[in-house]
Design goal:
alpha/beta; Rossmann fold; seven-stranded parallel sheet; two-stranded parallel ribbon; 10 helices; 13 strands; 36% helix; 16% strand
Length: 321
Amino acid sequence: MIVVTGAAGFIASCLVTRLNEANFNDIVVVDNFSIAKKENNLKGKKIREYVDRMEFFNWLEKNYEEVEFIFHLGARTDTTEFNKDVFDLLNLNYSKQMWNACCEYQIPLVYASSAATYGSGKLGYDDEEAMIPLLHPLNPYGDSKNDFDKWALEQTAKPFFWAGLKFFNVYGPNEYHKGRMASVVLHAFNQIKETGKLKLFRSHRPDFKDGEQMRDFIYVKDLVEVCYFLMQNRKNSGIYNLGSGKARTFLDLAFQTFQAMGREAEIDFVDTPADIRDTYQYFTEANMQKLRSIGYDKPFHTLEEGVQDYVKNYLLEGKYY
């Protein structure tokens, strides 16, 4: 059995599809399944068992001998949430419990970290583990992810294989339920469909023109491919960046979305909301050398390829992956 937490969510549901495609059908999915807005993400997938996230460790105690691998992708991911207690419960302490269980039962573990750990990026975007204690995230979500990364590195007891993945700006199918936290591609698609126009955040820094803020956008199909690779190659434990390795502007993304929809580009700029303005990242770009050095050699989708696939094969069709 393979366990996937956060399984009804965006990235994890895509991973379940990738595992099914590789003929792994004994999937145990873990989540808060009372959130009905995510129910379509798991429709049609081959799943052995559904387990509520608060019942999972009791379930694992009874079934650990059958568990081959755990992907711990479940988390509270709202960067505008400032209640630290929520992140301590769902991100930090739950992940510690997962780590300790994997040590006790000798189960390999891949877990989701985040590029939010890098904060303003002043120290760069290199996934050297010696840098992790020096990082200063810009919000409680980033703090929770970095706190767990630091804790994991300090442990003397470790799963025999483990990897923490710092996800950069992920976009792709199955994020319909994410609301404000959905990717810019989905927001752009919805705005263009409704109004024919797109609003992008204005730059509030003189060194970046409007729309030329840059992010490392990674297509979700690339991300789950890396997860699959790590399951098949259980060595070289550690913390890894997971982005495309190439920063692109929001204007690049906008123009690709208009093009994929067959529309003429029409863009307006609006002020970045006050509640996120001070913590807004103007540039992110993953150094992907570490992952490449352990043998991952598949190319990543370019922004053009990823947006075209997402818009034409999923958003325009209303389909899930």
